[in-house]
Amino acid sequence: MATKASAKAKPATRLRVLRTERLSPGMIRIVAGGAGLAQFTPTGFTDSYVKVVFPAAGVTYPEPFDMRRIRAEYPAEQQPRTRTFTVRYFDEAASELAIDLVDHGGEGLAAPWAAALVPGDEFTVLGPGGGYAPDPAADWHLLVGDESAMPAIAVSLESMPADARGHVFLEVGDERDQQSLRTPTKVSLHWMRRSAGDDTAQAVRELDFPTGRIHAFVHGEADLVRAVRRHLLNERGVARDRLSVSGYWRRGRTDERWREEKAAEKAAQKPRETSREKSGYRAGG
Questions:
Q1: In a 10 Å sphere around its CB, with 0-12 CB exposed, 13-18 middle and 19+ buried, how is residue 54 labelled?
Q2: Under a CB-based contact definition with an 8 Å cutoff, are residues 50 and 214 in contact?
Q3: Same-domain pairing of 162 and 249
C-alpha cells in the first residue's frame, strides 16, 4: 500500500492548455501539456493532486517560481492563491495531464478561470502530492465522496484488479452530474442525488458490510466526511490505518477560510487522540 508523500516543498511546473472539455454541467476538464510537463513526476497515488497557482493581480513573481520564497518576501496581499485538484490522468506518451474541477455555477475563483481558458493559455501548478492508493491486500473497498472526490475515485476504480470487491457512494447534484466510470464487476456503484434528498452518510450506515479487511477512502465535503468517518471508527470499529479521510471543502466557506478551520480542527483533535491512545483506546481493537 502506498504511503503518504513527503511534506517537502512541491516543485512548480509550467503547463500550456491543449483543450478543455465540459464533462457534465458541473464538471470541467483541463487537458494540458507543454515543455514543462517533462519534469512532472507521478506519485503513484490514485488521489494524486496538484495546486493551481493564481497570481495576485498586477504582481510578477521571480523565476524560477518558488512559493516558499514568495511567502517569505512578499506581503500577504501580493501572494498568489492556490486551488487543489486531482490529476485525472497523466499520459506521458501523449504529453498530456488532465485535471477535473467542479463548476459551482460559475462561482468562486477556479471555475470562471477554467471556463475562460483557451488552447495556448499557460498556468503554473505545484506538486504533485497524494496519499492514497487502493490496498491490493484488502478484502474489499469502500469509497465515499461527492463531485470534488469523483476524479480520485474514478482513478482508484481504474487501478483496481478486475476481481476487486467493494462499494462506492458518490454524491452529486442530480443525474446530469453522473459520469460513466469504469468499475470492477464486483464493485457496486451507488449514485446519491442531493436533488432527490438522498442521504449519503445514512446510506453508508445502512450498508451490509462485506466480511474481511476493509480499505476505505472518504473524501469531499467536510460535514459528509466527518459523519462517515465517525461511523466507521465508532460504530464499525474500522482501524484508523485502514482509512484515508479528508475534507476537501466545507459548504458556505471559502477555500482559505476552510483551510484555517481544518488546521484548527486537526490541532484540537490531536490531543484527544493522544489521550485515547494512553488510555488504551484503539479504533477497531
A1: middle
A2: no
A3: yes
The answer to whether residues 188 and 270 belong to one domain is yes
Domain boundary among 129, 161, 193: 129
Domains held by the chain: number: 2
pLDDT by residue for the chain (285 residues), tens digit each? Answer: 544 444 466 799 999 999 999 999 999 999 999 999 999 999 999 999 999 999 999 999 999 999 999 999 999 999 999 999 999 999 999 999 999 999 988 788 999 999 999 999 999 999 999 999 999 999 999 999 999 999 999 999 999 999 999 999 999 999 999 999 999 999 999 999 999 999 999 999 999 999 999 999 999 999 999 999 999 999 999 999 999 999 998 887 878 877 788 888 778 776 655 444 333 322 222
Boundaries of domain holding 173:
140-278
User: How many residues comprise the chain?
Assistant: 285
The backbone region for 225, taken as left when phi is positive above 0, alpha when psi lies in -120 to 50, beta otherwise, is: alpha
Residues 174 and 269 in one domain: yes
- Residue 145 sits in the same domain as residue 274: yes
Both ends of the chain: CA-CA distance in Å?
A: 21
CB 87 within 8 A of CB 97: yes
Amino acid (one-letter) located at 130? G
Is position 166 within any domain? yes
Residue 6 domain-assigned (yes or no): no
